[in-house]
Amino acid sequence: MSKSSVGRAPSEATGAKLLRIWGRCKKLPMGKWLFSRILGTTIPYTGSIKARIEHLEPGHAVVVLPDRRRVRNHLNSVHAIALANMAELSTGLAMISGLPSGMNAILVGLNVTYEKKARGELRAECLCSVPQGNTRQEVAIDTSVKDHTGDVVTRATATWLVGPK
User: Fold this and answer.
1) Whether pLDDT at 146 is above 60
2) Using CA atoms, how far apart are residues 39 and 114, in angstroms rounded to an integer?
3) Angle between the 14-25 and 31-42 helix axes, to the nearest 10 degrees?
């Protein structure tokens, strides 16, 4: 048995693994930060914005992006691609965390609209239905990114191709 399979079922779903790690981390001091760093190390490009996962359960994810110079553009607002990254992350976490064993997902489309300059701490919240069964299908999932006043700064629809591994 390999080191990576110790303590978990060999056929553990990706979503179940995410939720297991989330469940352990969120109880610890700075656990959400730790989980977010683990995720960012696993998915390096996503980790580049250093977003913090605030909530995770099947069909529901909350991602927070602190205001930092490294994600800003020349207009002193959060860069469009950082916002798109955050939207993709929230939809992916919400959906993948509930996928049944043997299923996988990959992003095949992302439609993003920018409604207001994004400044200050930002919050993306995604609520969605999680596909069940083992058929190959495209799933469109909506999310929005809000600023610290609650105004929507970005809306996005992520299209995920879900199917057997």
Assistant:
1) yes
2) 26
3) 150
